[in-house]
Amino acid sequence: MNILVTGGAGYIGSHAVKHLTACGHSVWVFDNLVYGHREAVDAERLIEGDLLDGALVESVLREHQIEAVMHFAAYAYVGESVTDPGKYYHNNIVGTISLLEAMRRAGVERIVFSSTCATYGVPNQVPIPEDHPQSPINPYGYTKLVIEQALEDYRHAYGWGYAALRYFNASGAAADGSIGEDHSPETHLIPLILEVALGKREHISVFGTDYPTPDGSCIRDYIHVDDLAAAHLAALEKLEPGSAIRCNLGTGTGVSVREVIAACERATGKPIKVVEGPRREGDPPELVADPAGALAAIGWRAEHTDIEALVASAWRWHKEHPNGYAGG
Ligand SMILES: NC(=O)c1ccc[n+]([C@@H]2O[C@H](COP(=O)([O-])OP(=O)(O)OC[C@H]3O[C@@H](n4cnc5c(N)ncnc54)[C@H](O)[C@@H]3O)[C@@H](O)[C@H]2O)c1
Ligand SMILES: O=c1ccn([C@@H]2O[C@H](COP(=O)(O)OP(=O)(O)O[C@H]3O[C@H](CO)[C@H](O)[C@H](O)[C@H]3O)[C@@H](O)[C@H]2O)c(=O)[nH]1
């Protein structure tokens, strides 16, 4: 299939591109490289451009006879979305509508969209099933919820098939060590801990030790990027005209911040200095996916379920690329 991957030079998108290509699909990457990395993808498959340029997107869709879009491109810093909401509403909503309209003009009617567990807000039930109310607590989560609704409206109006995949905490790196996580600035827990192991950072702060969890730190569901990539293809293969797939992508197992730190110590063989800090605003105590919906909807379940092995895959990338892609 001819597939356009927006945001394909970013962390999760580049892993999806690698997987789709390995499975024999013809993949084109559309990325403005604001946060993405040229080195993360095959240069011949990279189209540099912005989603807000609808005419360019339309011409790319037509030229490469694109049959389906995987849409990863977005801004994804929760904290920044609170302090600079316009940046998020503009890029994530206006940018996506620009993409959808270009697809409409070019006659492309299948899309797999990167949504997030942040659309649930503070859950009233854990593990979280797909029919849990969606009530985001930050602008980032709202932008993703708006697009979920837009996709439903396009399905209703035009008979499109779409999948909204709500990821939990994307983590890990490709098994062959070729690509990995390189966000700048980095805010995610695992790469920050690994920077301590590399000697680039003095300590890791635990954001809150008084949560109502067994060890007092927050619990999350860490899902390997290779599993996310496989889920995207599984969802795409299920898409029919008029079909709507909404599923959580997680392992179903919660891991606390302290447990992640301990797994990093084991995987790296290095002691990690920990500083206990206050809670970070907007962090729900526990976010864990109910994975049953994804198994039923797209026949997918996470294969990387061991946190130490997941961290080890990330460690391989960070050890070999201590300065990320910039270091070669
Ligand atoms: N990282 C996570 O844990 C997580 C969890 C849930 C959902 N998501 C979602 O998954 C997607 C990918 O996340 P990621 O961690 O790989 O982020 P990332 O920043 O590494 O990748 C996003 C890519 O999109 C590109 N981009 C952004 N706006 C663009 C635009 N207007 N036009 C063209 N390209 C544009 C960026 O340059 C970047 O390469 C995002 O939509 C994010 O909201 C991520
Ligand atoms: O230095 C740090 C960084 C994080 N944490 C904690 O580690 C856990 C994971 O934090 P991350 O920042 O790695 O991930 P989030 O759970 O905040 O964010 C993830 O889930 C969000 C939805 O809530 C968004 O989708 C976002 O893109 C995705 O990375 C949280 O409990 C956080 O408080 C720390 O204790 N110290």
TrEMBL record:
Pfam families: Epimerase (PF01370). Its cofactor is NAD(+). GO terms for biological process: galactose catabolic process via UDP-galactose, Leloir pathway. CDD domains: UDP_G4E_1_SDR_e (cd05247). It catalyses: UDP-alpha-D-glucose = UDP-alpha-D-galactose. One of its GO terms (molecular function) is UDP-glucose 4-epimerase activity. Pathway: Carbohydrate metabolism; galactose metabolism. The keyword NAD applies. Transmembrane segments: none annotated. Keywords: Carbohydrate metabolism, Isomerase, NAD. Residues 3-242 form the NAD-dependent epimerase/dehydratase domain. The keyword Cell membrane does not apply. Belongs to the NAD(P)-dependent epimerase/dehydratase family. Homodimer. This is UDP-glucose 4-epimerase. It comes from Pseudobythopirellula maris. The gene is galE_3.
